[in-house]
Amino acid sequence: MARAAIQRRLNWLIAEVVSTREETPLVRTIELECPGWPGHLPGQHLDVRLTAEDGYTAQRSYSIANPADGEKLAITVEHVDEGEVSAYLIEELTTGDRIELRGPIGGYFVWEPGTGGPLQLIAGGSGIVPLMAMLRARIEAGSDELVRLLASARSYEHIIYREELSEIAQRDGIEVTHTLTRSQPEGWTGPSRRVDRAMLENLVWPPAREPTCFVCGPTGFVETVASTLVELGHPPGRIRTERFGPTGGPT
Amino acid sequence: MTDDSHVDGNALGALFFDLFGREMTDQRGCCAACGAVNQLGCLKVYRAPGDVARCPSCGTVVMVVVSSSTGVRVSFEALRWLELA
Amino acid sequence: MSFVTRGFRGRRRTDGPADRVPPGQYVTTDFPVLSAGPTPHVPLEEWRLTVTDRDGRQISWTWDEFGALPQETVTVDIHCVTKWSKLDTVWDGVSLDTLLDDFDSTSGYAFVHSHGGYTTNLPLADLTGGKAWVATGYDGAPLAPEHGGPARLLVPHLYFWKSAKWLSGLVLADNDRAGFWESYGYHIYGDPWREQRYSGD
C-alpha cells in the first residue's frame, strides 16, 4: 500500500452486522458491511466503540479476520471474563444491528501475499484471528509462499476456524498443526501440550530457511514463543508479535 | 521477571493516527536511555491508569499516555528520535 | 456523537451501597491487575523497607524484622481510578503508625518508592491515624507478586494508584512532589469521594 494512500484521519464509521457465526462456545465471528471502509492489510486491527443511551462508551480493539474485500469486514471475538464489550458482541449483537468502528490500524504486524516466504504463523487461542487473515489472503491471491501454522487450543472444541483450517491444510504449500493443551479427543495423534522448545524446533521452519514469524496470542504465550524462537536462532527482526494481554482478548 | 501484562506498541496505533495522521507502528524510534532502535509496534505497552510504553530492549519508559477529562496527554519521555519514513 | 448502540448498557453501574461506592465507580468481584511495568521479583532475603526522614535519618527493616512487628488484619473497600471498586477486601500487614512511630510527624509529606521505579506521593497525615498499612497478605495468603507482593502500600481511602505495589521505601519531606502518575496529570491527592481523578478535578 502506498504511504500516501494511508495518510488520513481515523474517523469513526458505522458498520452493519450482516451475519454472526459461532466458532466455538466462547468465540463468535461477526461479519460487517462498513460503508466508507478504506481497505486493510492482513494482520491489521480495528477499534469498536459501543455507546449506551446514557452516553457511557466502551472501546476495544479487534483483529480483522478477513482479507480486504471492499466494505466487507469480519472480526472474531472471544468472550472475556467481565468483558462488557465482548459480552455485548457475543450475546446481544445480531444481524441488522449497527456498531461504530474505525481503522484499519497497524503497520507492524502485517503481511501481504507476494512478499516471499516461507511464512511461519504461531497462534495461542484467539491469536489465530489476524493470522487467519494472512492465510486467507495467501489463498485468495494464489501466491506460492510456503506457510506453516502452529496453533494452540485448549481442546478440539476450542479450535477456532476448525473446518476451514482442515480444508486449508489440504492445499499445497500449507501445513497446519494443532496442539491441544488440556484435553484431546480419542485417537488424537497431534501434539498434546503447550507450545514448547521441542515443538518450535520440529514444527517451525528452521532459521536456515529464513522464515518470517508471526506470533499472536495471550502475552504469556507470545513471550515464551518469541524468546524461544530467538534462542533457536531466529533473528528478532524476523519475529513479529501481537500480544493480547493477560486475559486472552485485546483490550 | 515474569512479564505477562503488557501488549505491543500496535495497541497505540490509533493514538499515533490522532497525533500524526498516519500509520506509525512501522516507524522507528530510538530509546534515549540505551540507544536501541525499534519500530514503535515493538514497544511494550503496560495498560495501567494510563498507557506506559517501554523500550523492548532495556525497559525504560519511553512514552506515557494519559487520557484525562480535559484531553489526551502524551509524553515522549525517552524517545531520542522518531523517524517518519 | 448521537450514535447509540442498540441494547448496550455497559457494566451495571448501580450495584453496591451508595455510602460505600464513590461517584463514577462500579463494583467488581474481580481483582484487576494494573501495572506500569513488569512485575519485579524481589527475593525475601534481599527485601528491605526503608523510611528516610527529612534529615536523611533512615530506618530499614529486613523481611524477618518486618514480620516481627505487630501485624493487623483489616477489611477495607478499595477504589481504582479506572472506575472499579472492590468491597470488603481483607489484608494482613503492619500499620504505618507502627512504622513511623520513631519519626517526627511534622514532616508534611511522604514520597513513596517501589521496586521497578514506580513512585507516588501523599500527605503524611494520610498515612497515620490508622488509615494506611504495608500489606504483605491478601485474603489469608501471602500477597501475590502481580498484586504487589511481597509488600505493598495500602491506603484505601485514596485512589488505589496511591497504594504503591512492590514498596521499597518512604521518604519524608516538608514539600509535596508529584509521583509517577501525578506528574502526568493524575490528581496530586486522589480522593475518590471527591472524584479527584485528574489534576483540576
In short:
By secondary structure, chain A is of the alpha/beta class.
List keywords for this structure.
A: 251 residues; alpha/beta; 6-stranded antiparallel sheet; 5-stranded parallel sheet; 5 helices; globular; disordered N terminus; B: 1 helix; 39% strand
What features would you describe in this structure?
- The complex is a heterotrimer of chains A (251), B (85) and C (201).
- Chain A is an alpha/beta fold.
- Chain A has helices at residues 84-92, 128-141, 162-168, 197-202, 219-231, and strands at 13-24, 27-33, 45-51, 57-63, 72-78, 98-105, 119-124, 147-153, 174-180, 212-217, 239-243.
- In chain A, the strands form 2 sheets. Chain A has a 6-stranded antiparallel β-sheet with strand order 4-3-6-1-2-5, covered by helices on one side.
- With 85 residues, chain B is mainly beta.
- In chain C, strands 1, 4, 5, 8, 9 and 10 form a 6-stranded mixed β-sheet that branches. Chain C has a 5-stranded mixed β-sheet with strand order 3-2-11-6-7.
- In chain C, a hairpin with a 5-residue loop joins strand 2 (48-52) and strand 3 (58-62).
- The chains are: A alpha/beta (251), B mainly beta (85), C mainly beta (201).
- The A-B interface holds A 3, 6-10, 45, 47, 61, 102-103, 105-110, 218-220, 223, 240-246, 250-251 and B 3-11, 13-14, 17-18, 21-27, 39-42, 47.
Beta-strand content estimate of chain B: 35-45%
Question: Termini of chain B, distance in Å?
Answer: 35 Å
Number of E strands of chain B: 8
Average of the residue pLDDT scores of chain C: 94
Arithmetic mean of pLDDT of chain B: 92
Strand content of chain C: 25-35%
- Considering DSSP H and I runs of 4 or more, what fraction of the residues of chain B is helical? under 10%
Strand order of the largest sheet of chain B: 1-4-5-6-7
The rough form of chain B would be described as globular
Helicity range of the residues of chain C? Answer: under 10%
Q: Tell me the structural class of chain B.
A: mainly beta
Tally of DSSP β-strands of chain C = 11
- Sketch the major β-sheet of chain C: 6 strands, mixed
Structural class designation of chain C: mainly beta
Radius of gyration of chain B: 12 Å
How far from one another are the termini of chain C? 24 Å
Number of helices of chain B: 1
Low-confidence stretches of chain C: none
Q: Most extensive interface: pair and counts?
A: A-B, 30 and 25 residues
Radius of gyration of chain C: 17 Å
Order of helices and strands of chain C: EEEHEEHEEEEEEH
